[in-house]
Prior knowledge:
By secondary structure, the protein is α+β, with helices and mostly antiparallel strands. The protein has helices spanning 10-36, 43-57, 59-70, 77-89, 95-106, 150-171, 178-191, 194-207, 239-246, 250-271, 304-319, 322-332, 339-357, 371-386, 394-413, 419-427, 432-445, and strands at residues 114-117, 123-124, 128-135, 140-146, 214-215, 228-232, 237-238, 273-275, 283-285, 291-293, 299-301.
Amino acid sequence: MEKNLDIDRFSKRLNRYFQITTQVGGIFGRLGANKYLGLNIDQKKDALSLQKKFGQAKGPFMKIAQLLSMIPDAIPKEYANKLIELQSNAPSMGEYFVRRRMKNELGINWKKKFLTFNESSSFAASFGQVHKAQLNNGKLVACKVQYPDMLSTVKADLVQLKIVLNLFEKFNKVIKTNKIHSEIKERLFEEIDYINEAKNIKIFKKIFKNETKINIPCIFSQYTTPKLITMSWLEGLSINSLLKSSFNNRELREKLATNIFNAWYKPLYSFAIIHGDPHLGNYTVRSDYSINLFDFGCMRIFKGKFIQGVIDLYFALQQNNMAQAVHAYEQWGFEHITKKKLSVLNKWANFLYSPLLEDKVQKIQESDSGIFGAQVAAEVHQELKKLGGIKPPKEFVFMDRAAVGLGSVFMHLKAEVNWYRIFHDLIDNFDQKKLTEKQQNTLKLIDLKL
């Protein structure tokens, strides 16, 4: 079996440094020139170049492209549209790579394990691509194969990320970035371990075992390795394509919003677990409007007191109870909360919690633009800067990332639902002790030996 497909070499990392510096740096330079210098750039043509270069970069920096596309008005529409395509249709690796990967993972006779195997990918993303196949027993499966050199890629990109965060901290001392880098580092190394992702899929399968509106794939353990996941094939349409054809269908948008809300929040409030990457590319929709959930490489397990803090902060804001708010932030892991810092943090918290505070049908926010959220964030940053900054807890990093990503999904849907009632269906009768017990029992019941 070949052993050189994924070997971690310094030369590979060095090549990655040059690739990211020249390609990604050039992209942001042109974006800045277009936005701030007013240069006449053909945005449609340049957006195609941007999509190609981010797709070639793959790995962690491709996830930056996905994040940009999820924030409405963050970048010109032409760029956002092309970056959104990267979420579920990134440039794929060729058939030669696919054959090498499958041989490396399942042996020289790997093709005999399948009736059919499509060597052209159905989907391609930041760390791997998916191929549709049929097992000898007739079952349709999705084989997710990891790109080569991902260990070298992640190590190289983490060095680049550290440099970027250090520069950011020099110019803006509001947020201390050491814990942010540490959390991202842990999660990225988890994402390139497909055995870990397969375990995560089993956990979510257990969480949603009695749920009819949220579908999780099954794992075929005998065809799963650290670089290959074989799971059941789930048919569905992408949310973007469905919205293009049926955007005026209000019932569709409301059901999608409700199902996506529960897909993310039920694990959080019932098991203290989150799916850490809820962008549009990780969902597809069935004909009954139920959703298929994919990409479980990034999962976060919280302590019960953190979830208690999230709920306590909600009620503190609803009841304007500042003492309870301080206690909630402390349970989140924030330290040294003064009255002034509390006031500033609550400004951002009120923005995030506002659609959940009133018992009425409404959009996720009144404005259809992402600019308002950016303005709130900018004000909070400036005010915290004057107060000496604040150090966010580790757990907050991916909680915030997931919340922002989910909010962006709802903004794209433009759905009007009663978020208050959906939220209260999940948190009413919340018991921290019972949550911890459910979490531990769920994790114990998963067959960790694939």
